[in-house]
Structure formats: C-alpha cells, structure tokens
Amino acid sequence: MEIEKHQHHQLHVFFLPLMAQGHIIPAIDMAKLFASRGHRSTIIITPHFLPFLSKSINQNTDSATQIDILTIKIPTYEVSLPEETESIHMATTTEMLSKFFQALPMLGPQIEELIKRHRPDGLIADMFFPWATDVAVKFGIPRFMFHGTCYFSLCASVCMIRYEPHKKVSSEYETFIIPNFPDKIEFTASKVADFYKEDVEPQYLKLFKDMHEDEMRCNGVLVNSFYELEPAYADHYTNVLGIKSWHIGPLFLNSKGMNLEEKRGMECSIDKQVWLKWLDSKRPNSVIYVCFGSMIKFEDKQLMEIAMALEGSGQEFIWVVRKEKQEEWLPEGFEERMEGKGLIIRGWAPQVLILDHEAVGGFVTHCGWNSILEGVCAGLPMVAWPVSGEQFYNEKLVTQILGIGIGVGVNKWSRNEGDFVKSEKLENALRRVMKGEEAEEMRSKAKGFAQMAKRAIEEGGSSYMDLEAFFQELRLVRL
Ligand code: UDP
C-alpha cells in the first residue's frame, strides 16, 4: 500500500557533473530524460556554463519547466588559482589542473547548503566527487554515481585497481590478461592510465582509489550504455564485481529530433548548408568522418601523417581539426588536390548529425565513450585510435568484443599526445573499415547494434525499464 501510494510521487534529483563539456552534456541529457518522465531535475554547475546550459535547456520547453539550474563557485582563492578558473579546460597547466582537483572537495559545504535549502530526493554526482556520498548521508538522501563510460571499461578499471596486474609484469610492453574478466583480453602496462601507477602525484592516486571505494559504497551507479551492447559486462559488473548499477543509455538518443547542436549549446565552425550540401552530393557509405573528440590536439607531424593517409587511401573524408591555420601541418597543395574529395572542419563539428548522414560510412575515433556510442548508434564501423585513459579499454570493446572496428596499433597512454601513428598504418585501417567484405560485415554488425540501441530507449526497452527500476529504487529509499 505504502509503495503504491508513492508510485507516482514526483522525485526531485540533484545532478552534479564535473565542470567539463564531456561530463555536462550527458548530465543535461539525463536531467531532460528525468524531466520527460515527470520528475524534477536540478543541475548544479559553475557560472561559466550558464549560457550554454540555459540555451540547451530552453530547447525543450516541455521539460524546461522541470529543470532548474543552481550555481556553485570553485574555491579558487583557497588553492591559488585565477578566479575565472571555472572549468577543467581552463586549468591549462599540470600545476593548475592539480590545484583544480584539490579545490573540488572544498565544494562540499556549498552542496550541503543547497541540499538543506532544496531538499532533493537524491544526488547524482560525478565519479570525481567521492566525498559526495558523505554529504548525502548527512542529509539522509541517497547518492548515485554517474559514469559516462561503458561497462566493459568500468569492469576493466575495477580489475586493475583490485588485482594490479600491471605491477606484476617486467616491462611496460609485456602483455598480461585482464584478471577476473569475462573474456580473455590482453593488455599492457603502457596502456594503463598514469593515475593507477605509484609514480603519479599521490593526490591523483588517492583520488582514484577514493573514487573506486565510493563506487562500492554509494547507492549505485548509472551507466550511459545499453544492455544488449555488452550484456556479459553489465552482468559481471553487478553480479561478480558486486556494484549495483542501472544502464540508462544511450542518453543522447533521447534528444534526437531536436536541434542537437543547439541542444548542446555549441557553436559549430561550419555552416549547416555547407556540410549538408557537401554530404548530399556523395554516395551512401562513401565518406569517412575523422574526429578526435573535444580535447585532443595532435602535433603537426601527426596531422601530416593523417593527411597523407587520407590522400593515399583515396578515401573521401570529413576531417575535424582543432587548428586555425593549415600551412605547417598539411602536405603542400593538399587542400587543392582534395577539393571536392575532402572537407576539413577547423574547430567544432556537428558530429552526431554528420555521423547520421547516409553518405558517412566509417568513423576514425579516439574512442571517447560518447563518440563510440554515437558511432554505434549511426551503425558505423570504426578505426579505433585511443590516446588516453579508458579509451584503451573502449578500443578493446570495439575491436575485440563488438567486432565493429580496426585498431591502429597505439601502444602507449599519454595525457596529451598518445603514440605516433604512421600514415601507412592508418591508410590500411581506412581501407579495411570502408571497403570489402570485412567492412561490410562490420557495418552490418554495427547497424544491428544501432537498432538495438533505438529499441533500448523506447517504452518497454531495456534502458527505459532500467530507468524505471532506478526511479522505483529511489522511491523505496525515500519511503
Ligand atoms: N563533439 C562534437 N564536435 C566536435 C568534437 C566533439 O560534437 O567537433 C562531441 C562528440 O559528438 C561527443 C563529445 O563531443 O559527444 C566528445 O565526447 P567523447 O566522450 O567522445 O570524447 P572527449 O571529448 O570527452 O575526449
């Protein structure tokens, strides 16, 4: 009776994302999704993101009524950071980044104040705030962790932390099998993020250990993935590794049909008429899209190798580069020769819309989880080129478990650059994902996953139902 009475009770949830674009985008998607199911969402963020957030939220007037924004201030003064450092991207040096992370736990009192004032039913905080569980406990509300990555990578991270296989090998490049894992996956210490290694700044090692402890003790984890994509890993995470979770993705799919780039609040560096007309003139599956996410900036010599591979492969392409001028990093006469064959976007591209165009038949990606989900949902085979962190796990998922991608043989984790990849390697991978039997097989598998993803978020689908289960859990905890 008591449960029934509360079955339709509107819930109010606080979202606390890390102050970075890649974390805020899925938080907004979640907030909108919760609002579309009749609940109230409040996003807590630094003032820097306000214009972006307001623009994005106003896109959907129905749910906008249910979404509030509250601001907090990074205690920059206490850690001697410039006052305007309100996002992780503004911490441009290693020293600034370290201070930024030192400042995060100092946000606790501000969050407490907001909880006291607004009395939400639950707090969904990023993994980078392991102290959030203590804050929530103080007020008797549940704390959930949001993970913007896949189950495969979550399982791999937990196994690295628990069993430390990377410390039992004699060299960086000696292979080991990830222990207590559903499949036999070979890995090397060179691909393990520095955060897990003893020689890293003790602050980061502690943060990562705290994050993993918190993963175990919080009320559960929300994952931006869908069950059908990686069932063995979704089950393993909960049943074997013992971490309660709900799969509620792909989150971005819920917003499809809206003006997605507007929704994301980002200014694109290319006019819609230009890229759309260009793609409309191409045959289905004839263009490869090349983009390395929102942060990676390759050195000129690496860009040169990419250009040579694109030209050498004879492949039509759209290439997104975070550079203003072309002079030093393109082979001489490249743009003239590629006229009509390739389109370079300098800055920010409307990625989801481009991937969805029927002329696009493949994706070269740095294996950021959002990009991979977007590639999967567009039914595209991928060239997997990981650069840092969990991207190396994601690469394994794409190439070995899902069988929808080809790696370029990168062997080393690096905060900025990754391994240098020669043009021949990329050229070979481009050919393999775009043409021939192998490419068709991967494309057909990817399209299968794309359909599963769409079904997962529809009423009655696996992600839809798991979100219902999450709401139910929240109601029970709050009874
Ligand atoms: N993105 C985009 N245009 C760009 C570059 C990136 O729309 O020019 C979006 C992309 O669609 C994805 C996000 O930015 O949603 C990048 O997230 P991901 O997890 O792939 O990588 P990160 O940038 O966090 O490394």
TrEMBL record:
Keywords: Glycosyltransferase, Transferase. InterPro entries: UDP_glucos_trans, UDP_glycos_trans_CS. It holds the Pfam family UDPGT. One of its GO terms (molecular function) is UDP-glucosyltransferase activity. The keyword Transferase applies. Its EC number is 2.4.1.-. Belongs to the UDP-glycosyltransferase family. This is Glycosyltransferase. It comes from Cannabis sativa (Hemp).
